[in-house]
Predict the 3D structure of the following.
Amino acid sequence: MKRLFYLLPLAAFLVVAGYFMISLRAGPDVHELPSAMLNKPAPEFDLASLSGGEKLDLDALKGHPFIVNFFASWCVPCRIEHPVLMRLSQQNHLPLYGIAYKDRPEDTKKLLDKYGDPFRLVGLDQSGNVGLNFGVYGVPETYVIDATGRIRRRFVGPLTAETVNKELLPLLKQLDKS
Amino acid sequence: MSSGPTQNRAGGAKHLRAALGLLALLLLGFATANAVEPNERLANPALEARARAISSQLRCLVCQNESIDESAAGLAHDIRIFVRERLVAGETDKQVVQDVVNRYGTFVLLDPPVQPATYVLWYGPPALLLVGLLATVIWVRQRHARPAAEPPLSTDERQRLDGLLRESDG
């Protein structure tokens, strides 16, 4: 019994060390919030598009899996993510749709003119209402939506080559099969 | 010349009053600190009061340790507007809070609900206290039990002890 008491500091140390090991480990941020919308139908949207033509309408997109990326011209991490999105659209030919979150259309246009436009269509969410319905709490956020319109995955913060290869592409492959 | 000290004292009192006034203003500022902008407020005071009460329970997800009522972040502003829109639409307080939880998850609630994911949070501290109490009880009992468990002195030991006591008395 008494000997067990001497093990207490060791046990406390192991608990703290374990906590640090999880927190310091490279990989997904443990502070990333889980989406409350996961596996629920994506909220309806029908947004005017940047090009002024066809609207960005959720119902029209259903039928095959697709990706929705919330971005803004004022968002610095979005610039980091931009080359990854360009690769996704040009090399992988993924159905990538953009929602310009609380951004002025002319600023969005300037951004895409300068750095390239990876999106098939860009919807304008100037009020941030669609973002609010999705539970967006910062840009960029990326949602993978399946053919029936359900949200299957949310990525908070800029997509990296690693998250794309390890998570995004395998998930889309799996969704395409089913 | 002789008016010098008097003037000083009067000056001191003035400074003190000014300092106290500033302090009062500062405290008043703290008491009413919030980020709700005038153009966000609802005309109906009863609805506005409900909106304020709801907002103070909702976490701002950008700053995470402030309620949306206190936060100046853009997202907090949007959720404040959303809450007010829902109230105007005739929803109850519970429905409004549920609407926000449906979008952002239970993490937005500053008062976390009791559910499997928060059992450790809610029951952990009382459980630890219980373990501590039990350990203390066991420890105290063992300490009390020990003297009784010791065997009585043998005749040899008693004789030696008597000798020692006599020596020290001597």
In short: The longest helix of chain B spans residues 119-149. Chain B has three domains: 1-33, 35-113, 117-169. Residues 41 and 48 of chain B are 6 Å apart (CA to CA). Confidence is low (pLDDT under 50) at residues 1-6 of chain B.
